Amino acid sequence: MQLSQKSLLGALLGSGLWGLSGTASQALLQGFGFPVLGLVALRMLVSALLLQFIFRPAIPLRPRARLVLVSVFGLAGSQITYLAAIAFSNVATATLLQFLFLPIVAVYEKATGVLLWSMSSFPDQRSDSGWYDSRVRPILVRTEGALCHRGGSC
After folding, report:
1. How far apart are CA 146 and CA 112, in angstroms?
2. What is the per-residue pLDDT for 95?
3. What per-residue confidence (pLDDT) applies to 106?
4. Cα 129 vs. chain centroid, distance in angstroms?
5. Residues 6+ apart with CB under 8 A from 9
6. What is the predicted pLDDT for the residue at 30?
7. SS3 sequence, the chain?
8. Of 43, 61, 94, 106, which has fewest CB within 10 angstroms of its CB?
């Protein structure tokens, strides 16, 4: 199998498992009343064990302390907020909030003057399409892809 085929298979498998994990998390949190912090701890522990004992990444001893700090304060916080959003709403809303994080932060930084935008900071059409996509995708998720009236034409 070529590297490009392995990469495509890995991307498909990863995105499929990510989607299943959100749905399974919603079932556990809302259907069975599983605690958010318990699920975060379980997910983080299983991930750490898989990485350490099965995949065995070549991590030098020196930055391990930093890796643990990033894991505890960065990834765990992200997991807690994502799973708490699932517990209080649903997977689609939690995913929408997760993906809207960067545009929301950019608008906040622009409003407070931290971020200085200029036309030279968006040199290509990919950047413009990314901003457009971040505005259209939430509408499509919220309306379940139906931009027209249900049962009628536009």
Report:
1. 35
2. 86
3. 82
4. 19
5. 1
6. 93
7. CCHHHHHHHHHHHHHHHHHHHHHHHHHHHHHCCCCHHHHHHHHHHHHHHHHHHHHCCCCCCCCHHHHHHHHHHHHHHHHHHHHHHHHHCCHHHHHHHHHCHHHHHHHHHHHHCCCCCCHHHCCCHHHHHHHHHHHHHHHHHHCCCCCCCCCCCC
8. 61
Contact 27, 91 (CB under 8 A): no
pLDDT digits (tens, 9 = 90+) for 41-80: 999 888 888 877 777 767 666 777 777 787 778 788 888 9
Average pLDDT of 83-106? 87
Give the count of beta carbons closer than 10 Å to the beta carbon of residue 43: 16
Both tokens of 20, joined, read 């299943």
17 phi and psi angles, rounded to 5 deg: -65, -35
Spatial distance between the Cα atoms of 48 and 67, rounded to a whole number of angstroms: 11
pTM: 0.64
The rounded percent of the chain whose pLDDT value lies above 90 is 20
